[in-house]
Amino acid sequence: MHNSPSLQAKSFDLTSTAFLIVAFLTGIAGALQTPTLSIFLTDEVHARPAMVGFFFTGSAVIGILVSQFLAGRSDKRGDRKSLIVFCCLLGVLACTLFAWNRNYFVLLFVGVFLSSFGSTANPQMFALAREHADKTGREAVMFSSFLRAQVSLAWVIGPPLAYALAMGFSFTVMYLSAAVAFIVCGVMVWLFFTVDAKRASAGDRHG
Known about the structure:
- The chain has 207 residues and is an all-alpha fold.
- It has a single domain, classed as Growth Hormone, Chain: A (Up-down Bundle), CATH 1.20.1250.
- The chain has helices at 4-33, 37-44, 49-77, 80-100, 104-136, 140-168, 171-192, 197-206.
- The protein starts with a helix and ends with a helix.
- The chain crosses the membrane at residues 12-32, 52-71, 83-100, 106-128, 140-157, 163-193.
């Protein structure tokens, strides 16, 4: 009985730290892929300039559709934790596809579709972080600011790291590094993130 406050504080610190690490790693996963994409399409896929532009346009459209679908789905189902793990898994598949495949249309329609799910892990993590802050009594705005700082740090470190991996080793190594980041995120979310039981049960009734 006397140990419960200590255990709760320890659990809270562990979960909060996990949120910070996941925010950084999801940022790294994105920062490893986006800055070098045009070079990857030109040098590895041998896409013409117009096709590179169309790829970015298609990526934006598919990303918006996937993001809207998942936002509505998460609000109805309630279990953001499982959704984030699912998004990380699809992010791993997307990175693996980009690492080994060089077919333009496969990358555009399959790779971008999968990577759009991977990218959505970050906003879903922020939504879950707000729920966590509200549940534990932490200032939600301040906690979100710390998380955004981690993402910003990732985008400072990620682009030069992406170029170093791609130019120094290969695009395969770069994309596999992003896949590893997604794997670590998925594992940490599964092990350390908590689920709001009321939201999850309400989501099950609506689902």
